[in-house]
Specification:
The protein is globular, with a radius of gyration of 19 Å. With 366 residues, it is α+β, with helices and mostly antiparallel strands.
């Protein structure tokens, strides 16, 4: 289901057995009344997570609006380098009462139980000791994810999606990858989750802030989806899958990792050319969608990251050729100094829907 709002709002929903997962994308500026009005479009909704992207001042305003609206779910705050744009992405569920997951008395996520499956949504995870080394702070975040999953009766083998927003990522991405890879090795993680690793500070001033999604079920199928136009990320030292698909009896949901202008051999291409990087990246994303029998019209949420805030105009120009995407564009560093653009994207289809046959990018270029 897709509902378009007049004031730059988009709502997408995913049907699961016995409950509905909804994603609201609300661009900034927005007020409390707009947030409340949008949430009223989701009958019986319980908010389980909020992501806010913007400047320090904008984030403070957005947090105030969220809490004033009575939402107590975890907030993942990411500071954007762009003075304009940004916004909120709100995740809610209806049809099931989510159970809060607490660590030291703080709500860090929610578990949602459906017919034969359990989903664990975690957000706003920061290290306990901001004075520790960046690598040690990363280890603390992984430990926190592990403890929260344990409280939900899961472990890291159930994780299908992670998000890491690393302050000054270009200075320590290799160290972050060493910690992540070591954690996966020690815990015997065989199926790498889809993931985003982006350079951005957070209001807490820690080295990173993280989110995670885990699924435990005998009735839910999880499979890795390849990127036809790129190599596996672990071929050049990054421990994540290009995309994962989670399928139940009602729907298939595809989680596409942060994707950038990287060619099949793993090298960055279209250096210095933001328009060229955007075009190639979106071709790569569309090819991944095609592997799952989907296209851009199936998008439930997306975030576009641009190193230079001035390049957001290039993204706006390009995105006009696509269907209305529930996307927020923000100014953040990508994990390589020659990459100017990255996008993450989730998409979903009902199990009984028929995949569209024609490429939307190809159609737009006709």
């Amino acid at each position: 289901m897709a509902i378009a709002f007049p004031l730059r709002k988009e709502l997408r929903s995913i049907e699961h057995p016995g409950w509905v997962e909804s994603h609201l994308t609300l661009e900034w500026p927005a007020g409390e009344s707009e947030l409340r009005d949008a949430l009223e479009e989701i009958p019986g909704a319980s908010v389980i997570g909020v992501d806010v992207f913007g400047t320090q001042v904008q984030i403070a305003d957005m947090k105030h609006i969220v809490r004033k609206a009575g939402i107590m779910a975890p907030i993942t705050a990411v500071i954007s380098r762009a003075q304009s744009g940004g916004g909120l992405q709100v995740q809610a569920v209806s049809g099931r009462d989510p159970s809060p997951i607490l660590l030291d008395g703080e709500i860090v996520g929610y578990q949602v139980g459906g017919d034969g499956a359990a989903y664990c949504f975690l957000g706003g995870l920061t290290p306990e000791n901001p004075g520790a080394s960046r690598e040690d702070q990363t280890g603390e975040v992984f430990s926190k994810i592990e403890k929260a999953l344990s409280a939900a009766g899961m472990d890291f083998n159930h994780v299908v999606r992670t998000w890491f927003y690393n302050d000054e990522i270009l200075n320590w991405y290799a160290g972050f990858n060493r910690v992540r890879t070591g954690f996966f090795h020690r815990h015997g993680i065989r199926r790498m989750p889809a993931s985003t690793g982006i350079g951005a500070p957070n209001p807490a001033g820690t080295a990173l802030v993280a989110k995670a999604l885990a699924v435990r079920s005998d009735d839910t199928a999880v499979r890795t989806v390849r990127s036809p136009l790129q190599c596996d990320a672990f071929a050049y030292g990054s421990a994540f899958s290009r995309a994962l698909e989670v399928a139940d009896s009602r729907s298939r949901t595809l989680y596409i990792s942060g994707t950038a202008s990287i060619e099949p051999g793993g090298k960055s291409v279209h250096k210095g050319d933001p328009a060229g990087q955007i075009k190639l990246t979106m071709e790569v994303v569309e090819a991944i969608l095609g592997e799952a029998g989907m296209n851009f019209g199936d998008t439930t949420r997306a975030v576009a990251y641009l190193r230079d805030p001035a390049h957001i105009s290039h993204w706006n120009d390009f995105s006009r050729s696509l269907p209305s995407l529930p996307v927020i564009a923000v100014g953040c560093h990508v994990c390589r100094d020659d990459l100017l653009f990255e996008i993450e994207l989730d998409a979903s289809r009902k199990m009984d829907s028929v995949p569209a046959g024609q490429s939307l990018l190809s159609r737009a270029n006709q």
